[in-house]
Amino acid sequence: MGAGEEWTGGVSGFEEMWRALAPVGRSGESGGYFRQPWTAAEGELRAWFAEQAAARGLTLETDGLGNAVAWWRPEGATGRHVLTGSHLDSVLDGGAFDGPLGVVSALAAVDLLRDRGHTPTRPIGIAVFVEEEGSRFGRACLGSRLVTGATTWAAARELRDRDGVRLDDALAAADLGPTGDDARWPSLTDDAHAFVELHVEQGRHLVDLGEPVGVASGIWPHGRYRLDVVGEANHAGTTRMEDRHDPMLTYAMTALAAAKQARLAGQRATFGRVEVTPNGTNAVPSRVTAWLDARADSEAALEALVADIARQATDRAGRDGTTLTLTAESVSAEVRFDPDLAARIAAGDDARADWPLLPTQAGHDAGILSAAGVPTAMLFVRNPTGISHSPAEHAETADCLAGVEALADTLARLTT
Ligand code: HGY
Ligand code: MN
Ligand code: MN
């Protein structure tokens, strides 16, 4: 197929894959997805990916965490590989597109390249990284962090999910688990020529620009911080208001202060998860644990934002007679994607390619591979409402197919 010709062959392939994934891990109530790692739903997704690889004659390589790469290595494809792909896990009650769009598009892009008669000069690997969202064990991009050595297995194996299940045990229950003391996969990054991740846009830049596809320039630094506030359990009726040490008040004021601080500074602060002990209606709680997700346009701004929130929380704890600790659980440094690669994709040698460059506030495995020294780029596909991490997340099929073409063009350029 030459430039300008209509691609129709891949439409049914893309839609068929999309239809196959649609019911997996879907909630009957909200229509959203619960695809937490090492659960039955995620196991089904991993099996689906293995079937897709086999159907295409791709060689599947997996590790003890459930990370997987399906390799297209035709004769003559030698040297450093080009990786694409994304993740299949979701946030709690998430959308269909965040993650799976990158995996399905990568498979469809390989189909399209084959239809075009392209024979890559380098191996192309379609990667699926586990626990990208950190929805179960709290660490963002846990799979890609472990394979690149950004996090150690010794530290990770101590993690527990919200039911107290250790990572080790969750892996064993899924018939997985690294052999030995290491979860690294060195060849994945050491032998990489480039990584290109396609993702649904989690914002409205492309809607405002009237473009179906964009290219990422970088990722804001961001982090997850656990706020533990300890007070004194007491009776909701008989304890005078002035006699209380109520951790809920310290938390509530901190949430308000964080939102205000972030708004004033043009940054982001979110409390999306709270646990109250003992969580009874007629008792002042003894403890509130809440998780702050903070993001800013520079590392200095992120540090300043978190320090400001911590200062205001500590002041309030002093007034409430509670004690407070703030612990960083998962911090991701600023990422600037390879500018040459981004420029080549955005203004490629193909008439179709003229994609805008966009920054993003969302984290991705691409950021982890970039930090590990792999020349990395991301393609974004327009999301009509910009909503993400929600059942309402959406992308039109025509835009998804434009994304597949952009990814295929990019992979072709990198393997010619
Ligand atoms: O939380 C994030 O930024 C991402 O969507 N994993
Ligand atoms: Mn996400
Ligand atoms: Mn994602």
Number of helices: 13
| The CATH top-level class label of the largest domain | Alpha Beta
Indicate the mean pLDDT: 95
Kindly, what is the distance between the CA atoms of the first and last residues, rounded to a whole number of angstroms?
Answer: 16 Å
Strand tally, please? 15
Helix proportion: 25-40%
CATH topology of the largest domain: Aminopeptidase
Strand content: 15-25%
Structural class by secondary-structure content = alpha/beta
Q: By CATH's scheme, which homologous superfamily of the largest domain applies?
A: Zn peptidases
Morphology: globular
Low-confidence stretches: 1-9
Q: Give the bound compounds.
A: (2S)-amino(hydroxy)ethanoic acid, manganese (II) ion
Report on the structure:
With 416 residues, the protein is α/β, with parallel strands linked by helices. The chain has 2 domains: 290 residues, Aminopeptidase (3-Layer(aba) Sandwich); 111 residues, 2-Layer Sandwich (Alpha-Beta Plaits). 35% of the residues lie in helices and 22% in strands. It contains 13 helices and 15 strands. Helix 3 links the parallel strand 3 and strand 4. Helix 1 runs antiparallel to helix 3 and helix 3 crosses helix 13. The protein starts with 8 loop residues before the first helix and ends with a helix. The N terminus is likely disordered. Bound molecules: (2S)-amino(hydroxy)ethanoic acid and manganese (II) ion (2 copies). The site of one manganese (II) ion (MN) has 6 residues, from loops. One manganese (II) ion binds next to loops.
